[in-house]
């Protein structure tokens, strides 16, 4: 009787082993963020993705120096014409890219893209692409919509163009006359735990560049947060730019 039970138990073990599915190698491959889907914060803890809108501007080069000195990488969401023509800041654009920061799009004119037609939205994006190809040889794969507007034809168009859409989960409020000290409070309230923050900040304010950014670098270090690009904080460090080799059209003015 015991022999029969032992044989049956052995057969059950074998059949169980055979029935167990082989591991799928694809499940171990981390997928990057999907285009055309709004992303508000990092997908990993222990990080902070400093992100600045509305440049390039007169403070861009200075901001890059502050970030580089602090060992920080950041993301710059740039427009074509909001604060003057992007080509007028060619040296700062090239310096930012050479320093390893992420260059992303904030549209050409900073218009209300939620109420634009698909063709208008595409024009806003391709003009930035063309300028960045002329300046750094790259087309961005990330963007942040002006006014954080994502209605209408916007998201479907971003999906078809392959753009990863970033908003924020902390608002520095610099655009709304918040002082750097008030902005600091917003980060303290948000805390350093959980998945990393993607803040809304603007490099067009001296206080954000010269006061808030050094404070954030220190705050991150005190909380053991790595200061990374938005792409890296989403597990997509290799996907900052569109794949391919692009040739400029020779344009150097807006």
From TrEMBL:
Signal peptide: 1-19
Any single biological process term in GO: carbohydrate metabolic process
GO molecular function, one term: metal ion binding
Highest taxon listed in the record's lineage: Eukaryota
Name of protein: Polysaccharide deacetylase
Cofactor: Co(2+)
Pfam families noted in UniProt: Polysacc_deac_1
PROSITE patterns to which the protein is assigned, alphabetical: NODB (PS51677)
Residue ranges of domain NodB homology in the record: 46-228
UniProt keywords, alphabetically: Carbohydrate metabolism, Cobalt, Hydrolase, Metal-binding, Signal
Protein's organism: Chaetomidium leptoderma
